[in-house]
Amino acid sequence: MFDMIVKNANLPDGRQGQDILILDGRIADILPTSDQHQAKQIIDASNCLVSPPFVDPHFHMDATLSLGLPRLNRSGTLLEGIALWGELKPTLTKEAMVERALRYCDLAVSQGLLFIRSHVDVSDPRLLTVEAMLEVRELVKPYIELQLVAFPQDGYYRAPGAVELLDRSLDMGLDIVGGIPHFERTMADGAASLEALCRIAAERGLPVDIHCDETDDPMSRHVETLAAQTIRFGLQGRVAGSHLTSMHSMDNYYVSKLIPLMAEAEMHVIPNPLINITLQGRSDTYPKRRGMTRVPELMAAGINVSFGHDCAMDPWYSMGSGDMLEVGHMAIHVAQMTSIDARKQVFDALTVNSAKTLGLEGYGLARGCKADMVVLQARDQLEALRLKANRLFVIKAGKVIAETPRRLSSLHLEGRPAQVDSADYAPTGAI
C-alpha cells in the first residue's frame, strides 16, 4: 500500500503512461501504468506532463510586492527603480516585509515553484531585511526551500560600512556570498571586491552568487575576474554569475576566450530574461540591444545555465507572476531558441539546471528522490512552455499542497464543440 500514486504520467525524459509510486515522502518507483498497485490517494495525470518542481535561482524577496511604495516607477527604468528602493528602505519594517514575502510564497506554491534563491540587500545598517528574510525562511520551510544571498546592493566598497554589514549578515545566518562589482566606483574596485568576496566564501565554506556585468557596456568584464578568482580559491562548482548582460554586447573574439575560462571554473550562469530584456538597451535608438546574455553559446560549452524570475511587482519590475514558465516562454523568444532541442533546454533551465545551481539534494523524478512534483495541463515540455500551462496539482513530500481546476473554455457556437481545452491542440507525432 503506497501513500500516493500519480497515474498515467508523461515524464520530461519522454516516457509516457507511467505510474509514480510514492511512499514516506519519497518516490518508491516509476513503472508503466498498471492496476496492480494500491495507494491511499490516487491522482490521475491523464497523460499530462509531470515535472519536478520549478526552481527560481535568482529573486529579490525583500522587495517583492512593494510596487507603488512610496510611489510608482513612472519611467520603468533601472535608475528610477534604484532611486525608489533608496526612498523605500528607510521606511521598511520587518513585519511588512515578512507579510509581503509570505504572500509571494503563497503565489509561488500555486505555480509549482518550491525552491527559491533570494538576494537580500544588506546595505542598511539596521539589517531589517536580513531579520525578515530569515524569519520567512523558517516559516516557509515546510513547503519552500529558501536560500538567502548576502547582497551588498549599494556596492561592497562603494557603500559606507558595507564590508562590515556583509560579515554581520553572514554571521546572522545568510547562506551565500553576493556582490555587485560593476556598481563599484572603478573597474579596479570591482575586481578587488570579487577577490575579497571569493576569499570570504572560501574561508566560510559558502557558495558565491554575484550580480555581474548587468550593463550594456561591453568593457564591463568582471565575469573574467570572477572566473579567475573562482579557480584561485578552489570554488569550482560553487560560483554563479547572475545577469552577465554585457556579454550580449562583447565582441565575438573576446567571448571565444571568455567562455572556456568560465567552463574551466565550472561557473553557473543565471540570466533573468524578463528583467534583462526590459532594462537593458535603454540608451539605444535602433538597432536596440535586448541585453540577455549568450545562452545558446554558454550551454553549448557545457556551462550550467538556469533562468531566474528576479523581480515581481517591485520598484524595478511592475510585472511578474511567480510563473517560471513565463520566464522560459520569454527566453525562447529573445534567445531564438525555437528548435525542439533548444526548447527542451529551456525547460531544463527552469528545473534540473536550476536545481544544480542551488545544489539541491534528492531533486528529480527517479527512484529515491523526494516526492516533490507538479502535474501540468500539457502533454510535454514544449507544450508546457507554449501554453504556460496550468498547474493541476503541486505535490510536496508526497502530499498535495496546491491544486487548480482544469482550465476549460465553454463555447456557444452552433455546430462547434461545447468546450475547448488548450492542451488538446498539441501537434501530433513524437517530440
UniProtKB/TrEMBL annotation:
Q: Which SUPFAM superfamilies match?
A: Composite domain of metallo-dependent hydrolases, Metallo-dependent hydrolases
Which residues does the UniProt record annotate as the domain Amidohydrolase? 41-401
List, alphabetically, the InterPro entries matched.
Amidohydro_3 (IPR013108), Metal-dep_hydrolase_composite (IPR011059), Metal_Hydrolase (IPR032466), Metallo-hydrolase_Enzymes (IPR052349)
- Which superkingdom, per the lineage? Bacteria
* Signal peptide start-end: none
Q: What is this protein called?
A: Amidohydrolase family protein
Gene3D superfamilies in the cross-refs: Metal-dependent hydrolases, Urease, subunit C, domain 1
